[in-house]
Hints:
Number of domains: 6
Largest sheet: 8 strands, antiparallel
Helix content: 55-70%
Domain HD: 499-621
InterPro entries: ACT-like_dom_sf, ACT_dom, HD/PDEase_dom, HD_domain, NT_sf, PII_UdlTrfase/GS_AdlTrfase, UTase/UR
Oligomer: single chain
CATH superfamily of the largest domain: ACT domain
Strand order of the largest sheet: 8-9-11-10-14-15-13-12
Radius of gyration: 34 Å
Keywords: Hydrolase, Magnesium, Multifunctional enzyme, Nucleotidyltransferase, Repeat, Transferase
Structural class: alpha+beta
Family: Belongs to the GlnD family.
Number of strands: 15
Shape: globular
CATH topology of the largest domain: Alpha-Beta Plaits
Region (Disordered): 919-939
Number of helices: 42
Amino acid sequence: MSALRPPARAARAARELCDETALAADFAAISAARRGDSGKRHAEVVARVKQALADGRALARTWLLEDKGGALCAARLSGLMDAVIRALFQHATTDLYPRQNPSSGERLSVAAVGGYGRGAMAPGSDVDLLFLLPYKQTAWGESVVEAMLYVLWDAGLKVGHATRSVDECIRLSKADMTIRTAVLEARFVVGDEAIFLDKMRRFDAEVVEGAAAEFAAAKLAERDERLVRSGASRYLVEPNVKEGKGGLRDLNTLFWIAKYVYRVRDIEELVKVGLFSAAELKLFRKCEDFLWAVRCHLHYITGRAEDRLSFDLQREIALALGYTEHPGLKDVERFMKHYFLVAKDVGDLTAILCHALEERQQKPKPRLDRFLTKLKPKRKPKELGDFAIESDRLDVIDDTVFAKDPVNLIRFFHIADRNHLALHPDAVRLVTKSLKLIDARLRESPEANALFIEILTSRRTPETTLRRMNETGVLGRFIPDFGKIVAMMQFNMYHHYTVDEHLLRSIGVLSQIEGGDAREIHPLASEILPTVRDRVALYVALFLHDIAKGRPEDHSVAGGRIARRLCPRLGLNANQTETVAWLIEQHLTMSIVAQSRDLSDRRTIADFAKVVQSPERLKLLLILTICDIKAVGPGVWNGWKGQLLRTLYFETENLLTGGRSDGDRNRQVERAQGEVRERLSDWSDRAFKAYAKRHYPAYWLREDADRAVAHARFIAAADKEDRKLATDVTTDAFRGVTELTVLAPDHPRLLAIIAGACAAGGANIVDAHIHTTTDGFALDSIVISRAFPQDDDELRRGARIAESIEKALIGDIWLHDIVESKVASGQKGRSRAFHVEPEVTVTNAWSDRHTVLELVGLDRPGLLYELTTAISKLNLNIVSAHVATFGERAVDVFYVTDLTGAKLASTARQNAVRRALKAALSEDKGAEKDSKDKARAKK
């Protein structure tokens, strides 16, 4: 028997899904009618199996939508497959290969293994079968197995199978842990049951006996490896329902170990052996039922064995499960919050099992987390009051410690952090049972709040301690506003984690920077953090910066309001409270300005400086912004973003400290030219003077010395070879980008052609520096995301894109068709789960010299090409372009003038620009393109 063997009602439901007797009779009738024509007989049997499976699965789906029973649906589908296998076995042994005088070797048992062996299947699950022989294979047995398998294969099923004798099963089980697990959960389906029972008896006696520790260690190690592959966090916003942390495979692993170690046959028996309480068993069943409902819906909706809960499927499943929209939370976000809470419950059940194994000495004692491995062990404290150390873990002295003093619920974690101690599972279970003690009185306790601030700002491992508090439920109870965002996902492609996980990870990033572990990645933040006057305000602001997510209003504004209410309770003074509130209200500002504004434009820096107001706030906002971006998810932070933030920081600091005056523009140009001249020591004064005149003053103010020197040598080489069109490719590993420099005769569609060539080559443009020389040439530097870690590979890729740009500019290739094809293929595979309302801002307030266009819309292949093409058709000159993507949301900003070099002053002209660019941003363009392609195909 197995944990998920269909209960009686599931067995009855399976009979309703497929009448096994009638199916076997149909097979017999087909055999009689097609005697002598094996090809037609096989085809008709296959067709009948397909029909039975399709009808049964459709009925199971109808019942799933009605009763929402996920585990029951999985059991029904397993029962449906049982009926098909039994009918096929009867067909093979009676109609095709009947035995007149069977020998002792002509016996066969068919068992289900894997998920099918557990009596649970999703619509697209594999069918894993074990054909058991008493001794060795016979011609009769081989014919029966082959006949069954060919029908199943031709019916479109993915069948995993093995044909073994009992001796082989035992021998292989001893040698291979995967085979041992399969045999452990094998379930008899049809045939000679005596063979199956003999195998299970010998398996228990010869394999399981005395090997519990080995099996448990192997399964836990296997789980760790699986989680590394699927993503170590259970809070990934596109989780794998089967393989991910907190998913069905964790429940399977839990039961495999429990079944092996405790020698139980059914999950209910774990209450009898004392592993689970009745409430924990109920929780196991609840988690199992929910996860199976999600997995079955995934397979039904996609029509295949899909276990990744991707964005484009989440909303459809949320609706199928009956979730509705609430103020501030979409239906899909409510569904995913429930999912992550279930995943957390699965983690709690796994922890209970692991502790029980430790008590039985079947599992090694846990090591502290990755952050603690670098710390030197501290001497054990002599007195811990209501707590004690047992096996290097913090435990309670008795079950009353929290009831007699609720502050102990915070003190427990404070002591663990201060002494680098792991938590004893018994104490953790007591904590979770004592959450009701966290009431208004405890929340207002000065001592409890002081202890919490020490935990939050600890110089040891605050992320680890806060995560422990979160997983036990203490954090959400003590800070109720935090409790509202626990397990909350944001339905977008930008954030990789739930809101609470993002906040905890951001604290971890800040702790790493402060500890000196991130100097190579974040040199500026590592340098200025020790000079920050109020690290407490910084930690509190980072912990609270997304606390108001999921509310109808702007979360930055609402978060500032929460901070003003909460900070005094936490013991912060009025100045600290105002600093925290300001940081939360502005926590997106620096990132937006750095990534989507022209940092060489004086107005950009001046406007940002007005927001920041002081060098101290500038430091705090820079560090908070870095931690926020870094904690969004893997790959979101890169060196290019770091460079933009550093540039904005230094430019703003210079202005705030009086180091730069808007009146000394000419001196700044001279200074920049002088630095470049000094580094071009092999040039004559006459040659450099002539070269310097080719650039307008804005060039010298915008470009740093390194790039200006590279440009000078690049243009000189082109002049020497008398090339009017030239390209250059350089890589920058630290910033994670590759830079394409293009020198070409200037014309309005130049940037559009470059963007099209990049789109055709699959390159993602992240920024563009655009210059026009006094002799009518364009000098454009296009920054694209790096695709390869090795410079040689990346340079070859860059060279191919540069070659495409040159061919497009001289007319050797027609970009329009190439980009259209690229866009169409990209959209076919693109998720349609998201909608971003197009926004077009046309303003003269963000720059003294240019009109700024801010375009927001759904990101798609070729979008920048479409936008720059539309801008060129509007007879606008693009002075600089700034491209940012936040998941599915593209934010592209262009600094433009009319063809005379002036701003767009006319309201009518601005409105015309808005209409044209909003049309270019429209998400319907892809759909229109698809319909046109289909129309052409029909013709």
